[in-house]
Amino acid sequence: MATTYTWHVNTIECVSAPGESGIPDDCDIISSVMWTLSGDDGNNTTMIAGRTQLDIDLDPGHLESNNESYLALSEANVISMIQTTLGANNIDGLHSQIDANLRSANSFMQQLPWV
């Protein structure tokens, strides 16, 4: 059976400019994202975690027209940013690592039932 891969965003690290009161009032730049990538082959599930540097400026003048602010981001938007930053070769490597973990999960030493 083919492996199903699922991305999940755990945390987003932001850099904020101080507001007039000197307190950061919004996420101005996404500096990094902590994520997990899980793989399920129908019998077993495994996951790996990672952190990706993004340095995405959320200033409306720097964003594409479909994104306006931190609050407008969706998990799918952020996952797309992660995948773009990582590139196809690194994502293939992550999939290979998950596949290897799943293969090893299917083979293990079991105590004999009569011992």
Summary keywords:
single chain; 115 residues; alpha+beta; 3-stranded antiparallel sheet; 3 strands; 32% strand
**If you average the pLDDT, what whole number results?**
82
Structural class: alpha+beta
Uncertain spans, ≥5 residues at pLDDT below 50? none
The helical percent reads: 25-40%
Helix count from the secondary structure assignment: 1
Number of DSSP E strands:
3
Distance between the termini: 33 Å
Query: Element order, helices and strands?
Result: EEEH
- Report the radius of gyration as a whole number of Å: 20 Å
**Oligomer description:** single chain
Strand content: 25-35%
Order of strands side by side in the largest beta sheet? 1-2-3
The largest sheet, given as strand count, sense and whether it forms a barrel, is: 3 strands, antiparallel
- The outline comes out as elongated
- How many domains in all? 1
Draw up the topology in text.
Elements: E1 4-15, E2 29-40, E3 45-57, H1 75-105
Antiparallel strand pairs: 1-2, 2-3
Overview of this protein structure:
The protein is α+β, with helices and mostly antiparallel strands. It has one domain. It has one helix spanning 75-105, and strands at residues 4-15, 29-40, 45-57. Strand 2 and strand 3 (45-57) form a beta hairpin. The radius of gyration is 20 Å and the shape is elongated. The model has no long low-confidence stretch (mean pLDDT 82).
Short description:
With 115 residues, the chain is of the alpha+beta class. Helices cover 27% and strands 32% of the residues.
